[in-house]
Write a structure and sequence with these properties.
The complex is a heterodimer.
Chain A (H helix, E strand, L loop, with lengths): L1 H18 L6 E6 L1 H5 L2 H13 L2 E6 L2 H9 L5 E4 L2 H10 L2 E17 L12 H11 L3 E3 L5 H12 L12 E3 L4 H10 L3 E5 H6 L6 E6 L5 E9 L9 H12 L1 H8 L2 E2 L2 E2 L2 E2 L1
Parallel strand pairs in A: 1-2, 1-3, 5-6, 5-7
Antiparallel strand pairs in A: 3-9, 4-7, 4-8, 4-9, 4-12, 10-11
Chain B lengths: L1 H16 L3 H34 L5 H11 L4 H12 L14 H38 L3 H11 L1 H16 L3 H7 L9 H10 L3 H32 L3
Helix pairs in contact in B: 1-10, 2-5, 2-6, 2-7, 3-5, 4-5, 4-8, 5-6, 5-7, 5-8, 7-10, 9-10
Classes of the chains: A alpha/beta, B mainly alpha.
Chain lengths: 269, 236
């Protein structure tokens, strides 16, 4: 019987340790992976946490999942990059506010040798039609992320429908940006990425940026606030503190001055 | 390539030897979550296996079939199902489990229990066949039977727990959904590996993988020694 008591005690210890995880004040931030992978949060959030003594619990998932999580009331804030989808969420009342606060751009990645010569294209339409008419392997996120939605918009703007070639050269991998880049590099294919993930990506191998156009391929990030009428547990006062800080001169300056390999990754709006 | 491999091992070793604070935290959380899940699941599964062996009752076959089938459940599905239950809109929302280590323990408990039940039931059944006559002649109570059977099969049961431990430590699909891979809160070894792979830092991902194997080997050595020691003391 002694052994039994011992086991019960162990269980109680586990449960007690567990409770100590519940810390003081915190807000839950649902975010796209690209901003996490860029290292921005590791640089930005500790400054906020120290100044205001509010912890930020960061959940990095695709934009689609981040939006559905905040719709389920499993987050106080979200940072995503799918403007059209976010506007629908706002109009349906799934979120209470949407603030465009920073941007960078999307880019086309491909093998250094650039067999299609997309680097000399004059616009994104031309890049896509070269890939399309040559039936060259192209890796698509295929995961309803902000980057995926942006890619699909480009195809439809160019009046091309690669969906019919899913069984041959147009490959939907349904994974995050990094995993998609790994696949594109492994199969010597072209792909579409956001700039910050690419700059931070460590397995570049023989791939590089072949086409970029900051005007036409803008990547807009927005801060979304959960709707406290739908989600009563939303910590309104805490998220307002974060919002005000992020949009303040201090917050803007911090974002602007975040550099990786001597390049600014985000521009404030 | 061999240069690359060397540097990966070197990185893993450096991380381990220098006792990198973040890595240590990640390793401790992995052990805490999986060990808790294994212990809690064993406490539940072993008596259940014994009861399933000794007692005949309505629905017993159904329990056995369902439990065996649940072994095929992909962890991602367990994660999603649990997420829906403990999410702010779920029926268990009041417990505020989402994105906590407790949620990850519950997820692993669900994944590990069918495995421990299936394996333990086999061991206990084998032992029961041996003791059946003896129990009958003494008119042993159910509780006494369970105690005897569990004690007699304890070495096999430890091996079962080890199999479950391996499965728990290597699991990523469920814990990344209900835990959220939050730095310093719910980041485990496997979720780190998944994250670093997606960032293209294959070296760091592999280094953490090597640490995981190293820990697994250490645990197995300790338990093997313990088992040998127990067997010697028993005069076997």
């Amino acid at each position: 019987m002694k052994k039994f008591n011992y086991i019960i005690t162990l269980c109680l210890i586990f449960i007690t340790i567990n409770h100590s995880y519940a810390s003081n004040k915190f807000i839950t931030l649902q975010s796209t992976t690209s901003t996490r992978d860029s290292g921005l949060y590791n640089y930005l959030l500790p400054i906020f946490e120290k100044e205001f003594k509010i912890d930020i619990r960061l959940i990095a998932v695709g934009t689609g999942q981040a939006l559905s999580n905040i719709r389920n009331c499993d987050g106080d804030l979200a940072i995503t990059h799918a403007p059209d989808l976010e506007k629908i969420y706002l109009s349906k009342g799934y979120i209470s506010e949407r603030i465009e606060f920073m941007h960078n751009d999307f880019i086309f990645i491909g093998p250094n040798s650039d067999p299609l010569n997309i680097a000399t294209s004059s616009n994104p339409d031309e890049v896509l039609s070269k890939i399309y008419s040559n039936k060259t392997k192209f890796i698509s996120r295929g995961d309803s992320s902000g980057t995926h939605i942006s890619e699909l918009n480009l195809w439809s703007q160019a009046y091309l429908s690669p969906e019919t070639y899913k069984d041959t050269w147009y490959m939907e991998v349904g994974q995050g940006m990094g995993a998609t880049l790994n696949i594109a590099i492994g199969s010597n294919a072209y792909t579409y990425s956001d700039r910050s993930t690419w700059i931070n990506f460590k397995n570049k191998s023989n791939h590089k940026i072949l086409y970029s156009n900051s005007e036409l391929l803008k990547n807009q990030y927005s801060l979304l606030l959960a709707n406290s009428t739908r989600c009563p547990k939303t910590k309104n006062n805490l998220i307002n503190i974060f919002k005000d800080w992020l949009l303040s001169e201090e917050g803007k300056l911090l974002i602007k001055s975040y550099m990786v390999k001597n390049q600014a990754l985000f521009h404030v709006d | 390539m061999s240069n690359d491999t060397d540097s990966i091992f070197l990185e893993a070793l450096t991380l381990l030897v220098t006792g990198d604070k973040d890595i240590l935290e990640i390793v401790m959380l992995s052990l805490y979550v999986t060990l808790s899940a294994v212990i809690l699941s064993s406490l539940f599964s072993i008596p259940l296996s014994a009861i399933l062996t000794i007692k005949n009752f309505f629905g017993k076959t159904a329990i056995i079939i369902i439990s065996n089938s649940l072994m095929a459940l992909p962890p991602v599905v367990v994660g999603l199902g649990l997420y829906l239950l403990i999410s702010a809109n779920g029926i268990l929302a009041a417990y505020e489990l989402l994105y906590t280590p407790s949620a990850m323990i519950v997820a692993q408990f669900i994944i590990l229990t069918p495995i421990i039940v299936a394996l333990s039931r086999q061991n206990i059944q084998d032992s029961y066949l041996k003791y059946d006559e003896y129990f009958k002649s003494l008119g042993t109570s159910t509780f006494q039977k369970i105690k005897t059977l569990v004690w007699e099969t304890r070495f096999s049961l430890i091996t079962n727990a080890l199999a479950a431990l391996g499965r728990g430590l290597s699991e990523v699909g469920a814990v990344i959904i209900v835990g959220g891979n939050i730095a310093h809160q719910t980041r485990m070894m496997t979720t780190t590996i998944a994250m670093e792979t997606s960032r293209g830092d294959l070296k760091l991902a592999l280094a953490v993988g090597i640490i995981l194997i190293f820990i697994s080997i250490t645990i197995n050595i300790i338990l093997y020694a313990l088992k040998l020691n127990l067997e010697v003391n028993d005069g076997k």
